[in-house]
DNA sequence: TCGATGTGTTCGTCTTGACGAACGACTTCC
DNA sequence: GGAAGTCGTTCGTCAAGACGAACACATCGA
């Protein structure tokens, strides 16, 4: 992550605090219940969620397991304009061979991390993501199916091969319109 | 993620120990020097590398910054050079909803650029790339069709949704096996 | 109204991680 | 040879994290 802009003071306790509380609420569990499942004192959890304290790895690990959240996400959370490139009309750099075309969709700005996700979705209720931290940009390339992707207020319909990028610090959606919808999502953050 | 197989005992101290020692040696630094730069006691670092103790997040963070290693990498075991994740069996980080599954395929190491390509290919002669600069890693997620991808000597057959990562500083191939083969390629370089 | 249960907080105690000095083992160099 | 410089380890001390009980507060039902 994020080591780039080291807060020299150390790890982001506020981030840990926010992550713990957010994930706990997302799971719909009480503070006491999470503490019980994780095998830690609820007083400890209370202090962590209030930003006090510097948890041991063991403690944080137990919580990440209990909350089913990747360990790293508790410490370096996703720090959450819309660009569309339709399949076949890629404008930018192309490397062409007789049977091979590679289109550059997005070049990495300096000091960014990009995590690669595979998204599998079925038609149903829209999946709305809570806004991530400012600065996050999400890139989606649709593989199969059809989907509405992008800012919650104004999503874009994607066909296979289509590409869209949008800021992740706004509420955004991924709604499959067809069965077996598959997409590659690259989450970019500073 | 790695949490799937919870070692109930807690966080992998052995993994932390190994990671710290490996990364420190890779950097060619002495134990005392790393401790000094990280602002921790060398006795503490010595104990951590020996697998004793349960470091606080603050301590581990300082070390991850000093060693320029992503925080997660200190806690989670190193990935193999060539990694394959078949569609639907993503083992790593998952965020699941009723109609939505996002699998973290690859997390970005520090100081890297990742450029996103859309690859369109037709069956025909194999497309062999000359080796790129050392340190380059390529990630491929197959969207449609079928393809042989990876190290030239030992490529992997990918189906839609499959993911493979391989070092780009070796000769590698991308050979479509079916018409209308589409893939997302993320080129990662320091 | 009054208990009963749930929430999250605060407080005293004890355990434990982090520190720094001292240590033995090992090179280098005069 | 031995003085000086590394290396990583061990040990006693102190600060801080983790614990559990007690706490204030809200909600609910008899």
From TrEMBL, chains A, B:
Residues 20-74 form the HTH cro/C1-type domain. Gene3D superfamilies: Jelly Rolls, lambda repressor-like DNA-binding domains. Keywords: DNA-binding. CDD domains: cupin_XRE_C (cd02209), HTH_XRE (cd00093). Coiled coil: none annotated. This is Transcriptional regulator, XRE family with cupin sensor. Pfam families: HTH_3. The keyword Ribonucleoprotein does not apply. One of its GO terms (molecular function) is DNA-binding transcription factor activity. The lineage of its organism: Bacteria, Bacillati, Actinomycetota, Actinomycetes, Kitasatosporales. The keyword DNA-binding applies. SMART domains: HTH_XRE. It comes from Actinacidiphila paucisporea. One of its GO terms (cellular component) is cytosol.
């Amino acid at each position: 992550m994020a080591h780039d802009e080291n807060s020299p003071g150390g790890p982001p306790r506020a981030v840990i605090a926010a992550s713990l509380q957010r994930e706990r609420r997302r799971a719909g569990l009480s503070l006491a219940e999470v503490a019980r499942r994780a095998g830690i004192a609820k007083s400890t959890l209370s202090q962590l969620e209030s930003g006090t304290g510097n948890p041991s790895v063991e403690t944080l690990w137990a919580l990440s397991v209990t909350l089913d959240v990747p360990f790293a996400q508790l410490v370096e959370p996703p720090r959450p304009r819309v660009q569309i490139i339709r399949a076949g009309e890629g404008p930018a750099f192309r490397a062409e061979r007789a049977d091979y075309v590679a289109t550059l969709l997005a070049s990495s700005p300096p000091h960014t991390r990009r995590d690669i996700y595979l998204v599998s979705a079925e038609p149903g209720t829209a999946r709305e993501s809570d806004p991530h931290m400012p600065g996050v940009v999400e890139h989606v390339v649709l593989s199969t199916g059809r989907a509405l992707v992008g800012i919650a207020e104004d999503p874009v319909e994607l066909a296979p091969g289509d590409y869209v990028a949008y800021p992740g610090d706004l509420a955004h959606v991924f709604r499959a319109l067809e069965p077996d919808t598959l997409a590659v999502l690259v989450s970019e953050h500073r």
